[in-house]
Amino acid sequence: MYQKTRNVIPRTHNAPLASSLTEEKRKQLCGLLGNVELTLLYKASVHGYQASAFHQRCDRQGPTLLVAYNHSGYIFGGYTSVDYTQSGQQITDEKAFLFSFQGGVPFRININSECFARYDDATMPSFGERLFFCYGNQPVVHHERGAGSYYTARLNAFDFSPATLYGNDTQLTECEVYKVEQGTAPQVSAQMKPWRNVLWTAKRRAELMGLIRNYKPLVMSVSRVRILMIGPVGAGKSSFFNSINSIFMGRITSKAMSGSAGTSLTTQFRTYPVKDGREGKPLPFVLCDTMGLEEQTGAGLDIEDISSILQGRVHDRYKFNPITPFQPDEQKASRPASLQEKIHCVVYVINTTKISLMSDKLQEKLAYVRRKVNSLAIPQMVLMTKVDEACPEVEKDLQSLYVSSYIKSKVQEVSSRLGVPVSCVLPVKNYSQELELELNCDVLLLTALQQMLNFADDYLDDAG
What we know:
The longest helix is centred in the C-terminal third of the chain and has 25 residues, at 439-463. The chain is an alpha+beta fold. The termini are far apart. It contains 15 helices and 18 strands.
């Protein structure tokens, strides 16, 4: 009798709350945040969906993680490192992000630069472009586009689609808010066995630079191998060239146009040689940059152009036309391109933070390209960029890259999505905001470039 009576006593303010997160998903969310511990502050089904109940329990609690659940089984939400205080102000929070579980693992959507992360008022939490949780004190999520002059005048704070984030199912079954605190032990330990071995030393960097400087293509008629970079807009193709160029110039350079615009900054086919220092000789490879792939028809690089590029028919500085594929002149079309002019290795450049957001249309385009490249027997690999933005532990220490289970899961995911072996997926960090070169960054970039040269040799071995 006593047990039954105790079970029906209303939950008191200080009684422990039962989390709806499984232990596995809790660990995965902690992986997004680094070495942290989560303490449940607010549970809508217990405390109510009213804004007053949320603020009573969550105001001035420091960094918090909101986790929502809907009828379709989606688990999604947002993180903010800035207190809720009902200040009535726009909040700048570069660490804020949205997340959603896709394929059993969470992907994160980071705040766009120069945008406010949320609005701190007396209502329930909202993120970025007015993504409201428990909207109107009801168990619903609401995405309000173009709300107010700020949002119509500037970029969206978070680039996402409701279909991807929560399956367009606005009915919530639960909403929880967790206090995020630093853990007592580091998540990535020196004793943990890395899933790939890398020597993070100046000696290894010098060794890789020496191998690349002294590389000679297997076929005498080829003086420099040609490596083609293909990928979505903003993935980091041009930034990879700038990063490699920076390493051999000994300083940060910005020769190729790069940035985070919504449409491709690269409008021409560019072949970028790299010199060994300011007065040095050209190195034995050329990085070929293309217009970014876009999911819309008639936008971005026309996939028919890729066939012409692969076969060496497109000249440097050819201006792409998304509507009309490349047409070689009759004189060039009448003779086959030489082995020197053809592409010897294809590299797909994919933003790690957007792997799970890849649309079906974009995936279909990449699959088409892969089939064409396969038909020409050209080796292929994947560069996974922006690994530091995808994992906080890697952002703190790049050497933790090959210990991170989250990065490993992203490598496996992109391998599955693009149909390339895991061994052909290499995570890297391009130079973007840095003013000085950094050893760990160089080691990753040079390792990737060395693998590209190895793959080019495989192609030339068969072709020769």
